[in-house]
Amino acid sequence: MAAQGPRGRLASSLPRLLLGLAALAVPPPPAAAPEPPPAALRAGHAASSLPAAATAPRTRYLLYDVNPPEGFNLRRDVYVRIASLVKTLRKSENWVLVLPPWGRLYHWQSPDILQVRIPWSEFFDIPSLNRNIPVIEYEQFLAESGGPFIEQIYVLQGYAEGWKEGTWEEKINERPCIDQLMYSKDKHEYYRGWFWGYEETRGLTVSCLSVQGSASIVAPILLKNTSAQSVMLDRAENLLHDHYGGKDYWNTRRSMVFAKHLRVVGDEFRRKYLQSTDEADRTHYKEDWTQMKVKTGTALGGPYLGVHLRRKDFIWGHREDVPSLQGAVKKIRSLLEMLKLEKVFVATDAVEEEIELLKKLLPEMVRFEPSWEELELYKDGGLAVIDQWICAHARYFIGTSVSTFSFRIHEEREILGFDPKTTYNRFCGETEKNCEQPTHWKIVY
Ligand SMILES: Nc1nc2c(ncn2[C@@H]2O[C@H](COP(=O)(O)OP(=O)(O)OP(=O)(O)O)[C@@H](O)[C@H]2O)c(=O)[nH]1
Ligand SMILES: *[C@@H]1O[C@H](CO)[C@@H](O)[C@H](O)[C@H]1NC(C)=O
Asked: According to the UniProt entry, where is the signal peptide (predicted)?
């Protein structure tokens, strides 16, 4: 059976779920209903009047979306799964992945800034992604396809009858939709839906696929059962990894290089406040990730302890594996002493009152505190990236139990070549009996 990664569950605590559902209202109608493009103008046909295009293989577009309550870092994991599907498809046909714009994430609640239709280039380096699989932004898809139409939408779901005990088999079938469809027909018989906040986008056909298996199980359907030029897989988190932790997994993960402008901000902060530079820390980064292969244990990291304290919905459920702030600070102090470090960088989503308490308990802590302008510029996602980048360069890192935010830091440090002992650490809850530490997922080249 394909592993789904260290966190098998698809987390949805109640408050997240409720907020996620509240966000599902159908967008208001556009001023004028769009006309469907004549077939010749649809995706990939645009160049067909050019003589050379007659022989070029037809481009097909894969789009996807994820269950609204899922956060930034789980979505990064879904990208890895979809990338392996694209690799499988490309063995037979010329498929391109359309990057789903970011937005309306439950955690991205900073007031007064509009966080929808955010292109991937705000957080990731597009040329780096392209060295793994061909990707384009949604806006480019719109420009290329001559109209805001997605020809086929498959909504992925489980099986109504559930999983049968003891028998695991990979399967995929067209089935009636189990949940209420998040798409509705307009008066032209086109499907409207969320579509990442692009109100003018329409689907031409929508159907549901029950699926149990890894991402590439969809490949035969896309290659044989539909000839649509653009296909969207909604609820793509239902697909598992083709091979979690394998070479293909790591290639895709390595290609998810953070956008340069965010790395620059993080590096500048390290230099200024943490006496941390790549030369001294032995964390040289190659712009071309395919050229980067660091021997494990060679990275030293900056002279500070990196901490990720996931709070908010992680403490509202009174989880046993998450410490109190007092407990976390006690651990931080003992680590500082053991590692003979003086500085500690703290990344956290804690609310203001908790931050104030933390400042009292740990006055020397260093945090990246954005000005309003910086928040507007980088947005919640960019700040998460900056925090992760700084944690990834620490001499020693300790994170929060089963937080995908912490998991992504583990991977970043694995890529940089840190000794696993300095990476796969987490806080323990005060009442936790068996505080199991995170799994080491060794990088594969
Ligand atoms: N800047 C910053 N943001 C954080 C931090 N911890 C959590 N967040 C925010 O809260 C979100 C946490 O959710 P994610 O980890 O992305 O979401 P998820 O995939 O549901 O993952 P977990 O809930 O952590 O397993 C992030 O996307 C950030 O926006 C942090 O230390 N620094
Ligand atoms: C795909 O086509 C094959 C062959 O016609 C058919 O057996 C199968 O049920 C189809 N699968 C789906 C999911 O529609």
From this structure: 1-33
